[in-house]
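Project outcomes to date are best conveyed with an example. Our students and postdoctoral researchers have been running inverse folding experiments weekly, and each run begins with a structure described purely in tokens. The record below, which covers 177 residues, was selected by the lab manager from last quarter's runs and is presented without edits.
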């Protein structure tokens, strides 16, 4: 599955992407904000990531700039207790340009197309930028703050939980004014 947004192309990871993925995520400042990525992030982790079989109902994508195909991050939808969970990372040189929001919006469009009615997400409390992205996408805080394990930190850290109901929305990630 492929998806084109205004500035980005979301596509499945290919085996030859491992080196670019490693270059973007092998940054402790990126990995510490993720639950599942280990630190240090090594070449074998990137190779394993790109070799995982695709799961059509829960896709994962590399995020590339549409103008030059440069890989700048990843976004995906994972199963999570009766809902879909949105996860993403953007390489540090591309922070602050709206790419996480744009990639998240595209992933929510895909989630809706796949029939998901509820999407959840969370962010570690020491990563408020991710909370801002989630709110821009239309997620609402559930009020729950729980410990969540971060492989990159090697420990639990408090994470704020969010949810977004896609049913009845005219466009995922866009709230009516």
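After processing, the design step wrote out the following sequence:
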């Amino acid at each position: 599955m492929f998806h084109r947004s205004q500035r980005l192309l979301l596509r499945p990871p290919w085996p030859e992407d491992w080196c670019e993925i490693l270059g973007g995520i092998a940054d402790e400042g990126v990995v510490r904000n993720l639950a599942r990525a280990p630190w240090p992030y090594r070449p074998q982790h990137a190779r394993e990531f790109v070799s995982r079989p695709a799961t059509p109902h829960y896709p994962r994508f590399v995020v590339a700039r549409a103008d030059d195909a440069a890989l700048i991050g990843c976004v995906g939808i994972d199963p999570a207790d009766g809902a879909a969970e949105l996860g993403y990372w953007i390489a540090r040189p591309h922070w602050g340009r709206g790419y996480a929001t744009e990639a998240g919006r595209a992933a929510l469009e895909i989630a809706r197309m796949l029939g998901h009615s509820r999407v959840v997400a969370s962010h570690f409390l020491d990563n408020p930028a991710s909370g801002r992205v989630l709110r821009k996408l239309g997620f609402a805080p559930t009020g729950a703050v729980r410990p969540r394990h971060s492989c990159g930190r090697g420990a639990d850290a408090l994470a704020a939980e969010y949810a977004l109901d896609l049913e009845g929305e005219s466009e995922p990630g866009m709230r009516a004014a």
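Residues 3-165 form a domain with the Aminopeptidase fold (CATH 3.40.630.30). The longest strand covers residues 140-150. The training component of this project remains on track.
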